[in-house]
Amino acid sequence: MVLEKKSALLEDLIKKCGGCAVVDGGFATQLEIHGAAINDPLWSAVSLIKNPELIKRVHMEYLEAGADIVVTSSYQATIPGFLSRGLSIEESESLLQKSVELAVEARDRFWEKVSKVSGHSYNRALVAASIGSYGAYLADGSEYSGHYGENVSLDKLKDFHRRRLQVLVEAGPDLLAFETIPNKLEAQACVELLEEEKVQIPAWICFTSVDGEKAPSGESFEECLEPLNKSNNIYAVGINCAPPQFIENLIRKFAKLTEKAIVVYPNSGEVWDGKAKQWLPSQCFGDDEFEMFATKWRDLGAKLIGGCCRTTPSTINAISRDLKRR
Ligand SMILES: C[S+](C)CC[C@H](N)C(=O)O
Ligand SMILES: N[C@@H](CCS)C(=O)O
Ligand SMILES: [Zn+2]
Known about the structure:
The chain is of the alpha/beta class. The protein has one domain (about 1-325): TIM Barrel, CATH 3.20.20. It is built from 13 helices and ten strands. It has helices at about 1-15, 25-35, 45-50, 50-65, 80-85, 90-115, 135-140, 155-170, 185-195, 220-230, 245-255, 285-300, 315-325; strands at about 20, 70, 125-130, 175-180, 205, 235-240, 260-265, 270-275, 280, 300-305. S-methyl-methionine binds next to loops.
């Protein structure tokens, strides 16, 4: 019942947006633009320790730009990751909780501010708690390879995700955003965990893709979506942090494989070098191309569209302008 009510919130938002809501853009990218040093095993989540005020500022900037959904700073925030920095379990859990609180505070403050402006065109945004893949935690680029090795079983992945999921759910986000999932095993682990933990918050699960056809592991999306399609916890499935050139083909493919809503938030097209820990130049979309393509992606069936790494508030503003031009 609670799950249905919360899903209805998202459905209403999508309706208010004219059929497609705007997800925010590269969170880590915008932290870096403001000078944050995130070349760290915790990547963007290092800011939860070092500069929580900056996290709130970045959320505000994406809200100003027109994001209807803000994704929290917890992508690479994990309890084992924090423990290896010398933090205690209590401190680690409170940082996870804080990631949700910071986004909720930004959303509430922004909404209070714009509500006073007559004729504004914003919607009250929703907060999606980011849950990065096991590969993100490994910090070796394996969210783009999908190869976790023989020793990584379904149970190991569930154990990895379990406590963080519990803490994030407890913190009360509107949605859960599983990001850069590179293979079927992890997708299945996430779905089973949502069920085992009786989670009452709607979730999306996004895969990466490095060839524009399949998941990074080489598994087809038909295989990968199979456990997701059966789950009541999953509201949307899609792609994040893959090149924007792949999105059109991938939406067409997903539309044939699922009745779930489709969510896409590609990166700029630059390619992550997991060893050197840097983005390599490649064929990229600028903001003008995002503006051109957003309505096309919507018309092909995407219900949630945004940007991922190397996109900025100006990209989100371009997408929002395009989608909300009525
Ligand atoms: C989406 S990637 C750019 C995130 C960072 C990666 N997990 C790493 O730590 O190298
Ligand atoms: N939402 C993440 C990126 C996922 S690839 C972040 O920017 O921290
Ligand atoms: Zn990304």
